[in-house]
Sequence to fold (68 residues):
Amino acid sequence: LELLLRESPNVVSRQRLEIAIWGEEVPDSDSLKVHLHHLRKTIDGGFDTGLLQTIPGIGIAIRADNES
Fold:
């Protein structure tokens, strides 16, 4: 979350997020996907528009709907 907030509204790659969380020992599983799911439930739950956005093929960003 901290990295995403610091970089907002820029997109952060999946690889950069994994290294920020686990360092060089990135797990083989879909751990990042699970963490992002929990983060979405926490920060976007109850709102019509989510701030945590997946940009297919690029990465993840925290941004308002009208930011690019």
